[in-house]
Amino acid sequence: MGWSLQDWAADPEKASRELEEEDAQKEKLLEEDDKDALTYLRSMDDWKDENKRGSGNRKNMG
């Protein structure tokens, strides 16, 4: 990101445009069948399936 409050005040739509550009880049990589991007996304999807939210280290709880 790298933008300050002053930058945001001068151009409040900048953050949303940057997010849209990032999404467009990710979409473009998927459309081009970039093997590295697909492998990464699949591994993250598998990881999220195996590690549900809140299932972290519970051994050190009180």
Automatic annotation (TrEMBL):
<feature type="region of interest" description="Disordered">
    <location>
        <begin position="1"/>
        <end position="62"/>
    </location>
</feature>
<feature type="compositionally biased region" description="Acidic residues">
    <location>
        <begin position="19"/>
        <end position="35"/>
    </location>
</feature>
<protein>
    <submittedName>
        <fullName>Uncharacterized protein</fullName>
    </submittedName>
</protein>
<feature type="compositionally biased region" description="Basic and acidic residues">
    <location>
        <begin position="43"/>
        <end position="53"/>
    </location>
</feature>
